[in-house]
Amino acid sequence: MAEMKFPKKVRLGDITVRDGFQHEEKFISTAAKIFYAEELILAGFKRIEVTNFGNPKGMPQFKDADELLKGIRYSKKLKKAGITQDDYEVTAITIREKAVDRAIEARKEGYGPDRILMMVSTDEEHHFANSGITLPEYWREAERCIKKAADAGIKMNGTVSTIWGSPISGPTDMKEAIEFSKRWLDIGAADIEHADHDGSAPPDQVYRYFSMLLDAIPNTDLHIAHFHVTRGWGLANVLAALNAGIDIYEATLGGLGGQPSNFMDDCPVPGTGSYYYRDPNYVGLVQMEDMVVMMDEMGIDTGVDVDRVLELGQLMERTCGRKLRSESILNGRIPKDPRPEYKRAGLTEMKVRNGEKPGQKFPEKEGVLV
Description:
Strand order of the largest sheet: 1-2-3-4-5-6-7-8
Radius of gyration: 23 Å
Largest sheet: 8 strands, parallel, barrel
Number of strands: 12
Shape: globular
Number of helices: 14
Order of helices and strands: EHHEHHEHEHHEHEHEHEEEHHHHEE
Distance between the termini: 26 Å
């Protein structure tokens, strides 16, 4: 019988504090952001994404970018646990060059990120909506930014979006995303995030794309899978990507996240414009809790403390003030030991009365147990 082939070990990046919180329509306190960043590192995550260095007028959720990074870098909690800055990698989003310059200045001051991220969409309309410039202009800017970031000791991630479709222009060609990925590597990106930012990817096309990708660029260290669950396909897409051979994934606690909020507390804000969704509260990323439980049950080493992740998921519901997407924080992990409290009394006695042996599960046939 043919079996699906999965990696024996995966590498997970938690992006709750950035991608998760960017969609929240209330300001998440800096203290809460620092708390979750610290706890995720203590749970075993080696990669966390925590803020956006873009203009806070558009995305006020990130007005505390510098304060947040300082809180993580100078954390007494992490120091007490024996964790140094070399033990984990912090990423900040820097869509445009001014944001890259902010990240470089923060790095020079000693608290800046290890890694930053710039983003292209294969659909130029979607790209223009996010960045405000054309693709050729952006590629020139990105190449310039990669060089200056490298000089400051910062790695650049190149994200490719609208791989499986665009919320603005509709269907896209996956082959273009392969070419965009090659372009990122040619100009010096350290790795590539392959993103389904609006939940357009069905699992068969996820498997097809990542199979094509690994044929073209076989080094799995370079590829990160990033799935949204707008249509409920998130974990199915993770499974498809695992089967293709991808071993680096991103997710958020509770499946938080989505397009940057265009409302903050009691005030409308620009965000990135009108929502692409009918219900902005029903979008998000793959649920980290459910993903790590699923992988753990499949025998895949996640490198993180699964129980601690589930505890953080429960706390996150208190932070956000509502029920989130995770099923695993409600129903827990799959039991591995008997649960006698659920037994119905009388089975042993009935088997004795029936003349059945302990463990017998089929009736006797001609004096032989079947």
